[in-house]
Design a protein that fits this description.
263 residues; alpha/beta
Amino acid sequence: MNPDQDESIRHAAQPGYDQYRENIARGKITTVEYFSMTVGSKRKAMIYIPPGYSEDQRYNVLYLLHGIGGDEAEWYNHAGPQVILDNMYADRKLAPMIVVLPNGRAMLNDRAEGDLFEANKLKAFEDFESDLLHDLIPYIESNYSVLMGRENRAIAGLSMGGGQSLNIGLGNLDRFAWIGGFSSAPNTKEPELLVPEPEEASSRLRLLWLSCGLLDNLKHVSDRTHTYLKRNNVPHIWYEESGGHDWPVWKNDLYHFSQLIFR
């Protein structure tokens, strides 16, 4: 990474980036089920397959996580990521990748219902690390034509999923080289726990992305992480953008982050 990448950037996605276009090649987005030994049951994930997917080619994988109020369909229902990604493929802005949208609440009843802040539900977001590493990733790598190196695997997410992405990604640098936290929530570990060895993280990361809306009332979480990384000379992109804790911010983050990974 370029050491200057920690400087604030302030640009929005191109107009129309999230609008359905006619007459372009399209990927496919579907729901799959996999068995989770972590949970002891079948679980669902959504998967985006890029235009022109072929078993003769191997693809990078981005694991894209949702917030506390969502599930595997949250990005699909609120952001239309397949539209954003299709448009960027048409404009030749992306490296070939599959995008996996898991359910980050690893428990038997993983629906976003009732009191979302119950202790067992919050613990389920922590337990997702095991589900991802030991159940979902092996399922993807057994059923799709994907590359399996750490430099071919990215993780990013919004809010609660942003905290998960930083916690899991930075805690497993042998698995992930590209990590993004969009408006990361207070589940994000303290910076000293996230990056206890700054020099090692600096040498292993291909990209560490932090972003947050300037009006977001959780911005202090991202500010705290950014300050620590900058003080310890860990290269990263720090992107402060207009907006709050909302979908225009997260769609814009996906637009920018996805263009930078696997390069």
